[in-house]
C-alpha cells in the first residue's frame, strides 16, 4: 500500500472484521488497551468498535499527553506566569509559550487561558523554534516553554535547549513534564481492575523508541504487544495480530506499522534525548507518581530548567497554601476529585468510560471542558463526545 485511501478501504476492513470474529469465536472476553491518543480518535472516528465482536473489550489508556499532565504542573506554570517566585521582585516579566492544546487544561482552580485573560503574558506557538525566536526578540522577558508530551515531542525540546545554548540565550527556559510510555504500561499491568490481555502500542512514540522497550512486557508479564499505525486497517490488523498471539498463548512484540517504526527506533533522536535528559519520577494525572516515567534536564543544562530558575522547590503546595493567588488543595494528590463528579482519572486508567461520568455532555463538553480528557482533541471524552460510543 502506498496511498492513504488504501488504508481506509471499507471492503478490506469488513474482511478483517470477519477474520477477527472467526479467530476468537467462542473465546472468553479479551481486553485490549491502546495507549495512544491518535489511536483513540481513529477508533471512534471510523467506528471500529462496531466492527469487532462482543467478546473484545477495547479500552483507551493514558495515551493523551495533555490529559495526563498533572494538576500540580498546571498550577506551577500559572505560578511562574504570575512570577511569584521567592527570588523575584520585578512584577510580571515572564512570557509563557505553549502549544494551543495546553491552554484550557484545568489546574486546581484555573488554567493558562484564564490567567492570560487576567493579564498573564502567554503566547501560543507552533514549535520550540517560535519560542526561541521570542526569547531573542524579547531579551527583557524570561521565556518559558511548557514542555509537555511523550518521547515523540521530547527530542524537539532537547534540540531547542541545545540551540538556545548555541545562540547564547540566557532568557529561554523549559518547564518539563515529559513522560515515557513503558513505565506507565507496567503500572497498568499491576492494576487489578484492568486484567489486560494485550497492548496496542503507540505508533508515534514507537517511531522514536522502537520496539525493544516493550519487550519486558511480553517477557515478564506474558502480555502480547503490537505497534500499529493510525489508519483503520492498521488498527484492525494490529488487533488481529494481537488476537493471534492470545489464541496461541504467545507473547511477543510485533510491528504492524513497519513502514515507519523499526525495532531500533530512531538512533539520532534517542541520542539527543540521552544527551539532554535523564529519567525521573513524575506525576500522572489520575495515576499518581510513577517511578522513572519522566524526563528532566541533566545537570549540565540546569540553567535552562524553569524549576531551578524560579525556585519551584520554594513553593509550598498544600491544602492551606494560597501563595500562588489561588487555592491549591488535596485534589492534586487525587486529581479525579479535583472537580466534584469528574472521573477523568478513572477514564485515563481505563477502568471507566465517559458515559459513566455524570458530567459528560450535561456539564462537560468541548466548549466548556471540566476535565482534561475533554480538553484535548485526543482525549477519550472528546472522542466520545464527537463521534459517539
What can be said about this structure in brief?
With 389 residues, the protein is an alpha/beta fold. It contains 15 helices and eleven strands.
Written description of the protein model:
With 389 residues, the chain is an alpha/beta fold. The protein has three domains: 4-65 and 196-255, 3-Layer(aba) Sandwich (Rossmann fold); 71-180 and 266-315, Rossmann fold (3-Layer(aba) Sandwich); 332-387, no CATH class. The chain is built from 15 helices and eleven strands. The strands form three sheets. Strands 2-1-7-8-9 form a five-stranded parallel beta sheet. The two termini are 30 Å apart.
Key terms for this structure?
alpha/beta; Rossmann fold; 5-stranded parallel β-sheet; 15 helices; globular
Assign the CATH class of the largest domain: Alpha Beta
Q: If you average the pLDDT, what whole number results? A: 89
Poorly predicted runs? 84-91, 314-338
Order of helices and strands: HEHEHEHEHEHEHEHHEHEHEEHHHH
Which band does the percent of strand residues land in? Answer: 15-25%
Strand order of the largest sheet: 2-1-7-8-9
Helical proportion, percent range: 25-40%
Number of domains: 3
The class by helix and strand makeup works out as alpha/beta
Assign the CATH superfamily of the largest domain. HypD, alpha/beta domain 2
The CATH architecture of the largest domain is 3-Layer(aba) Sandwich
Number of helices: 15
Kindly provide the radius of gyration, computed on alpha-carbon positions and rounded to a whole number of angstroms.
21 Å
Amino acid at each position: 500500500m502506498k496511498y492513504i485511501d488504501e488504508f481506509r478501504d471499507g471492503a478490506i476492513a469488513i474482511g478483517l472484521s470477519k477474520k477477527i470474529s472467526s479467530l476468537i469465536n467462542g473465546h472468553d472476553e479479551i481486553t485490549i488497551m491502546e495507549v495512544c491518543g491518535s489511536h483513540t480518535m481513529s477508533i471512534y472516528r471510523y467506528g471500529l468498535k462496531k466492527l469487532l465482536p462482543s467478546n473484545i473489550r477495547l479500552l483507551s489508556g493514558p495515551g493523551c499527553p495533555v490529559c495526563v499532565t498533572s494538576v500540580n504542573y498546571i498550577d506551577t506554570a500559572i505560578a511562574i506566569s504570575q512570577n511569584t517566585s521567592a527570588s523575584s521582585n520585578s512584577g510580571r516579566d515572564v512570557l509563557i509559550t505553549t502549544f494551543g492544546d495546553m491552554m484550557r487544561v484545568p489546574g486546581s482552580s484555573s488554567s493558562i487561558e484564564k490567567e492570560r485573560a487576567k493579564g498573564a503574558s502567554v503566547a501560543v506557538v507552533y514549535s520550540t523554534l517560535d519560542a526561541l525566536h521570542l526569547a531573542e526578540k524579547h531579551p527583557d522577558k524570561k521565556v518559558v516553554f511548557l514542555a509537555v508530551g511523550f518521547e515523540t515531542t521530547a527530542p524537539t525540546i532537547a534540540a531547542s535547549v541545545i540551540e538556545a545554548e548555541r545562540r547564547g540565550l540566557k532568557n529561554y527556559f523549559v518547564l518539563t513534564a515529559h513522560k515515557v510510555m513503558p513505565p506507565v504500561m507496567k503500572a497498568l499491568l499491576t492494576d487489578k481492575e484492568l486484567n489486560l490481555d494485550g497492548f496496542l502500542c503507540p505508533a508515534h512514540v514507537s517511531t522514536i523508541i522502537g520496539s525493544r522497550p516493550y519487550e519486558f512486557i511480553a517477557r515478564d508479564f506474558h502480555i502480547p504487544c503490537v505497534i500499529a499505525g493510525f489508519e483503520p486497517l492498521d488498527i484492525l490488523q494490529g488487533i488481529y495480530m494481537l488476537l493471534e498471539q492470545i489464541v496461541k498463548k504467545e507473547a511477543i512484540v510485533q510491528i504492524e506499522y513497519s513502514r515507519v517504526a523499526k525495532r531500533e527506533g530512531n538512533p539520532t533522536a534517542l541520542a539527543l534525548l540521552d544527551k539532554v535528559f535523564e529519567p525521573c519520577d513524575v506525576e500522572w494525572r489520575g495515576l499518581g507518581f510513577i517511578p522513572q516515567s519522566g524526563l528532566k534536564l541533566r545537570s549540565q543544562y540546569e540553567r535552562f530548567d524553569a524549576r531551578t530558575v524560579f525556585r519551584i522547590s520554594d513553593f509550598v503546595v498544600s491544602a492551606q497554601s494560597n501563595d500562588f493567588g489561588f487555592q491549591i488543595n488535596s485534589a492534586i494528590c487525587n486529581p479525579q476529585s479535583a472537580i466534584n463528579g469528574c472521573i477523568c482519572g478513572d477514564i485515563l486508567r481505563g477502568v471507566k468510560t465517559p458515559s459513566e461520568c455524570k458530567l459528560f455532555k450535561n456539564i462537560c463538553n468541548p466548549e466548556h471542558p471540566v476535565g482534561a480528557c475533554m480538553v484535548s482533541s485526543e482525549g477519550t471524552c472528546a472522542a466520545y463526545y464527537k463521534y459517539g460510543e
